[in-house]
């Protein structure tokens, strides 16, 4: 029987991960199957245990279970510890290993697919929830000139910044007035609700890149705002989704598939 993997979440039927990992398996010739696992909201551990004891080799973890997976793992990578969330579980010789590939996915999409050098850039990260936390450490490793966190509830952003030892500054949206950034990443859940984080006008520097972690057929309010503000480059989170999958595949199989080729296929499907 091929090695078994799955994405666990609730809901999970919309997940593109099975499509992506099937493409990676074809590309690399690895013998594996990747499915979807719908877990009851209060039964993450039981569902993951059941999958593991049936011989499952690894899970991707999506909403709302990334915190539960963090607590479930016996061993954690450094990046999962920093993120306090796990999106990749690996089961090997009875050991549960937790990793987080979301940040690497974002950074690889920015640097490789979008060709952006992040070192020396002024980066603004919007939001202070799990999605923002997961990408802070990998962004800092790129040595930006500055990393600024903005959140509707500034206390939350300040607490998050302190937990990274003051390597980044944090505040509310109003404090951004008169400032400019080279890369602005939307890690809020505002786009899900069709809302726009209250960014003041003029925050996009000349040549700025606007990145929304959300993706879908329609342009998000954040990307529409960025366009109207003259941002030079717009990107949604589909590339991050594919690149975090590349990293998960590497954690499980020791091979790094070509994410760009699969991203191209997904874009064609999205635009069809
Ligand atoms: P996730 O794990 O996806 O990050 P979360 O922990 O619920 O989800 O965090 C959601 C983030 O989106 C928060 O930073 C939230 O801001 P608050 O902390 O002030 O609640 C932010 N957010 C949600 N809707 C928003 C909106 N309409 N405008 C600005 N920020 C928004």
List how many beta strands DSSP finds: 12
The number of helical runs is 10
Q: How large, in whole angstroms, is the Cα Rg? A: 18 Å
Strand content: 15-25%
Global geometry: globular
Low-confidence stretches: none
Instruction: Compute the separation of the termini in Å.
Output: 35 Å
Q: How do the SSEs run, as a string of H and E? A: EHEHEHEHEEHEHEHEEEHEHH
The pLDDT mean sits at: 96
The main sheet comes to: 6 strands, mixed
Proportion in helices = 25-40%
- Spatially, the strands of the biggest sheet line up as 2-1-3-5-6-4
Brief write-up:
The protein is of the alpha/beta class. The protein has helices at about 15-30, 45-55, 65-70, 80-85, 100-115, 130-140, 155-165, 220-230, 240-255, 260-270, and strands at about 5-10, 30-40, 60, 75, 90, 95-100, 120-125, 145-150, 170, 180-185, 205-210, 235.
């Amino acid at each position: 029987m091929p090695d078994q993997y799955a994405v666990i979440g609730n809901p999970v039927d919309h997940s593109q991960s099975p499509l992506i990992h099937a493409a990676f398996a074809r590309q690399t010739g690895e013998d594996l199957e990747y499915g979807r696992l719908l877990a009851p909201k209060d039964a993450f551990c039981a569902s993951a245990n059941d999958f593991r004891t049936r011989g499952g080799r690894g899970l991707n973890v999506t909403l709302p279970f990334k915190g539960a997976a963090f607590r479930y793992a016996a061993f954690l990578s450094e990046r999962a510890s920093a993120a306090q969330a796990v999106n990749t579980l690996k089961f090997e010789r009875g050991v549960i290993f937790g990793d987080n590939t979301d940040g690497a996915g974002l950074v690889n999409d920015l640097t490789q697919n979008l060709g952006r050098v992040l070192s020396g850039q002024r980066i603004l990260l919007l939001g202070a929830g799990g999605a923002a936390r997961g990408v802070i450490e990998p962004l800092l490793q790129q040595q930006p000139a500055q990393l600024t966190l903005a959140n509707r509830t500034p206390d939350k952003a300040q607490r998050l910044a302190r937990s990274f030892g003051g390597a980044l500054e944090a505040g509310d949206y109003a404090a951004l007035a008169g400032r400019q950034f080279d890369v602005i990443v939307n890690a809020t859940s505002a786009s899900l609700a069709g809302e726009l984080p209250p960014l003041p006008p003029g925050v996009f520097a000349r040549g700025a890149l606007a990145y929304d972690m959300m993706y879908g057929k329609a342009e998000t309010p954040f990307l529409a705002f960025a366009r109207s503000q003259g941002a030079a480059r717009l990107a949604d989170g589909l590339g991050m989704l594919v690149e975090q999958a590349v990293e998960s595949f590497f954690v499980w199989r020791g091979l790094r598939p070509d994410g760009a080729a699969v991203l191209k296929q997904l874009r064609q499907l999205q635009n069809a």
